[in-house]
């Protein structure tokens, strides 16, 4: 469907599907609401009540001082702070400037997914036969049908294969056919940098994909390498989940203890040929995630292996194709609910989940599991929630695309409006919590703002690409006043200004209207960015948190 037809379809009432649908409100009324919101924001903060001006003035002065740090020389920064308790703007600077949001785009994608698909939405994976295997034999092909489940681990595949065997099936006379037609065949967004393709945060997107671990990283394999017992010995490299369509060229050598590692494992583009190279010091191991080419084939080959282990003989080959509508279900698996999936998705800033949800929205609403369809549906959902989209540009769901654009004002508007949705509590709780050491609680904020008034207080989404950093979410002031904020920094030089963002968030946690509470002004140590390798990536992508 051409883009203009998708956009037109998005404006019509959604077609019925197996997922619960909601009625779209009148678009002209939404537009009027967006205009009114824009006018209110343009008018600036409401006058402070008597006795509260000092606290607000102090806050504005402190934030302005932080943003004047030399680390942001030449950068563009959109910042907006609003009180949810009183409704007034406490600080605003370039809040309407369109900036690259990085993973702050996931705020939009996750909210739209909850609105469109619903918190109880589950992905399904089905094994179906062309003919009833009542005698234990599938005469013809067995179809493996995916709808994008990002939680389909190797263990889950084994369970599904065991269910087929438990149904009495012992033989398939035809092929194992993988059906991934729920989504389109575009695996990678054209807006993504090709240099990112080996890395798990840029994995190929398919309606049938494996999760390599319990973080539910999709479209990848875990790479583990172990050195030999002596310098010069070979290095042993393994992949997991390993399947028959993957190949590992063993390479590299064991280096002297304490030597510098030059070891790595790469995949040749367009293939599933993995090559190990370099020197791995003795007593040092190597672990990484690497993308696979055509996740559908990887999943299908693992199913074939697990069916064999379960005692089901498949006479034919492993291939791809569309299951006939008349195919009868032999076994079926359901993912966790969407409101549960939000935790690994948002806490760990999982790009694959964002793209799968974007395509799922398009498929469920417009019948097209594509980025253009999903983006059109997501924008319509944002309008339905009262979030204007005039300053929103999306080419993906994760924020990996540098062509994405978002403003601090729109981000704050979203954070305000989602509080009215029945699924808000689950959505808010999925945001990373500052200073919480548990990865599935603190997420990308687990190592930030610890030991400050923001710890256990700030719930916010991070975002990081080279030259792009963002932090947006919720915080309570020292007297319990509820605040919402968005900070988006673009075009800075050097390390990501996470320390400056943290200092602003800590200052918000100290805020009182009276201005009488003792306030520790941000020190150079507070402003310094946390030291970590690959600081131009989300810490979960770099494996540092």
From TrEMBL:
Signal peptide positions on this chain: 1-42
Keyword Protein transport found: no
PROSITE patterns: TAT
Enzyme class: hydrolase
InterPro entries: Beta-lactam/transpept-like, Peptidase_S13, TAT_signal
GO MF term (any one): serine-type D-Ala-D-Ala carboxypeptidase activity
E.C. no: 3.4.16.4
UniProt record, GO biological process: peptidoglycan metabolic process; proteolysis
Protein name as it appears in the record: D-alanyl-D-alanine carboxypeptidase
Record keywords: Carboxypeptidase, Hydrolase, Protease, Signal
One protein family per Pfam: Peptidase_S13
Start and end residues of each stretch annotated as Disordered: 1-21
SUPFAM superfamilies: beta-lactamase/transpeptidase-like
Family: Belongs to the peptidase S13 family.
Organism: Streptomonospora litoralis
């Amino acid at each position: 469907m051409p883009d203009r037809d998708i956009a037109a379809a998005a404006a019509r009432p959604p077609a019925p599907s197996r997922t619960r649908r909601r009625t779209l409100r009148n678009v002209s009324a939404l537009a009027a609401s967006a205009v009114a919101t824009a006018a209110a924001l343009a008018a600036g903060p409401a006058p402070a009540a008597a006795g509260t001006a000092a606290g607000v003035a102090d806050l504005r002065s402190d934030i302005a001082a932080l943003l004047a740090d030399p680390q942001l020389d030449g950068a563009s920064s959109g910042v907006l702070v609003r009180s949810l308790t009183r409704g007034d703007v406490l600080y605003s600077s370039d809040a309407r400037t369109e900036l690259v949001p990085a993973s702050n785009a996931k705020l939009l994608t996750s909210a739209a997914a909850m609105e469109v698909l619903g918190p109880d939405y589950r992905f399904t994976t089905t094994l179906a036969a062309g003919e009833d295997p009542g005698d234990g034999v599938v005469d013809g092909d067995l179809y493996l049908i995916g709808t994008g489940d990002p939680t389909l681990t190797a263990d889950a595949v084994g369970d599904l294969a065991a269910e087929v065997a438990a149904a009495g099936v012992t033989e398939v006379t035809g092929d194992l056919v993988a059906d991934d037609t729920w989504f389109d065949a575009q695996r990678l967004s054209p807006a993504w940098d090709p240099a990112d393709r080996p890395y798990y945060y840029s994995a190929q997107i398919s309606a049938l994909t494996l999760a390599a671990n319990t973080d539910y990283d999709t479209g990848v394999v875990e790479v583990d390498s172990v050195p030999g017992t002596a310098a010069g010995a070979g290095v042993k490299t393994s992949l997991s989940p390993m399947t028959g369509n993957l190949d590992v060229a063993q390479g590299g050598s064991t280096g002297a203890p304490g030597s510098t590692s030059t070891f790595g494992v790469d995949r040749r583009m367009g293939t599933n040929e993995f090559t190990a190279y370099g020197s791995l010091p003795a007593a040092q191991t190597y672990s990484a995630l690497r993308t696979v080419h055509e996740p559908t084939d990887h999943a299908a080959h693992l199913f074939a292996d697990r069916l064999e282990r379960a005692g089901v003989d498949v006479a034919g080959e492993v291939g791809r194709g569309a299951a006939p509508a008349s195919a009868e279900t032999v076994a079926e698996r359901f993912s966790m609910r969407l409101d549960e999936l939000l935790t690994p998705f948002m806490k760990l800033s999982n790009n694959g989940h964002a793209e799968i949800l974007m395509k799922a929205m398009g498929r469920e609403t417009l019948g097209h599991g594509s980025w253009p369809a999903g983006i059109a549906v997501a924008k319509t959902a944002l309008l339905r929630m009262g979030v204007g989209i005039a300053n929103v540009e999306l080419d993906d769901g994760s924020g990996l695309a540098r062509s994405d654009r978002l403003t601090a004002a729109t981000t704050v508007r979203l954070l305000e409006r989602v509080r009215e949705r029945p699924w808000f509590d689950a959505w808010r709780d999925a945001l990373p919590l500052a200073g919480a050491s548990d990865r599935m609680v603190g997420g990308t904020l687990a190592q930030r703002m610890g030991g400050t008034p923001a710890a256990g207080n700030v719930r916010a989404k991070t975002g990081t690409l080279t030259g792009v950093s963002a932090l947006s979410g919720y915080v309570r002031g020292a007297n319990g006043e509820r605040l919402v904020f968005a900070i988006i920094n673009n075009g800075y030089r050097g390390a990501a200004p996470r320390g400056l963002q943290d200092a602003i968030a800590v200052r918000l946690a100290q805020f009182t209207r009276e201005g009488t509470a003792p306030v520790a002004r941000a020190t150079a140590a507070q402003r310094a960015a946390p030291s970590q390798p690959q600081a131009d990536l989300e810490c979960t992508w770099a494996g540092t948190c």
